[in-house]
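[step 3/7] fold_predict: job queued, chain A
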Amino acid sequence: MNVSSETGRLRAVLLHRPGVEIERMTPLNAAHALYSDILNKPIVDEEYAAFSGVLEKWTDVYYVEDVLEELLKDSDIRRHLVEESCDMDNCDDDLSEKLMDMPSADLARVLVEGFEDPEWDGASDDRYLLKPLYNLFFTRDASSTVYDRVLINSMSFEVRERETLIYEAIFKHFFKVDTLNAMAWDRDARTEGGDVQIAGPDLLCIGQGIRTNTKGIKYLAQTMAKERERFHILVQELPKSPESFIHLDMVFTFLGKHQCMAFEPMLKKTGLFAGKDTTLITIEKGNISYTKVPNIVKGLQGLGWDIEPVIGGGSDPWVQLREQWHSGANFFSLGDGKVLGYRRNTHTIDALDKAGFAVLNAEDIVSGKVDMNSYEKFVAAFRGSELPRAGGGARCMTMPILRDAQ
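[step 4/7] structure written:
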């Protein structure tokens, strides 16, 4: 495992197909599950198949459910995951033993989809003894590859805490890599993968908002200060609301070595970004210093990066807001100048077209009608009507575990 940039040629990625767990929401518990609406699963399945199909054409794809089933054949890992899961959800010993006796495939499914209370009264909110992991298909958030290790993230909301158990087991025991954890350093430290971008071998870009806090960023800075002679972290402060600004990758993503996708008010410090700081953290021989910079792109350019933004949503401020709401800036790079994102954000796709990216339909790629390798720069655009309503895009749904060095 190694990821030293956001845009090196992708060699392996971890995904999770949205399962029955997303159908276990109602209008009453959707907000608790961190959704703004409930989803239509058959349409989710169609959209996700196009998204994952592009990735399967390009790289090695690992699926959480397959890896988890394999891990659960080990009795020690099985017991650890069952006991910790039951402890976090306050399940009794009878359920714990029942789960221990399940076949590995069934247990892998239940740990994600939840376990229904056989005595549920049909009316109360507590239908599931073991709670569904509604957000698990956003594989980026609970864990993120940081160079040759994995950051097991300290989730800000209780409904997502159990996700980290699964990812920690996967990376420690299946991929056998070392892990980092901000909460082990300070229980109040918070990090989430949507806020952590591996800009280069000596530079991280990090969002600071409702999901990643100053203590989480301080943990990463101090970790790097112990290990690197010279290192930088660019920190962008994010609005606390609305919920479309939960992570940095909702307003800024790398498209290639020389281009990025950006939400214009973040660059201009207008609207919701008025007064939101961009800070350059410099680490040199163990010393850590902080400097304000105009914005994240200017910060990159000041560090010697030859990079220019493509503006999400085009030139109209109202359209920019509309397309940002549905993850218009949330692109995932397959390689330098090769990205994956939602087709619904038409003004953003037009901006990419004007910036030299060939616009390819994901369905044509999956069917074999179009070969991505024939294009130097492209955006593989997939349909998104239901998936965006879950609050994330292509970067949120991908956990890269191996990229070529750039």
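[step 5/7] annotate
The two ends are 15 Å apart (CA to CA).
The chain has a mean pLDDT of 96.
exit 0
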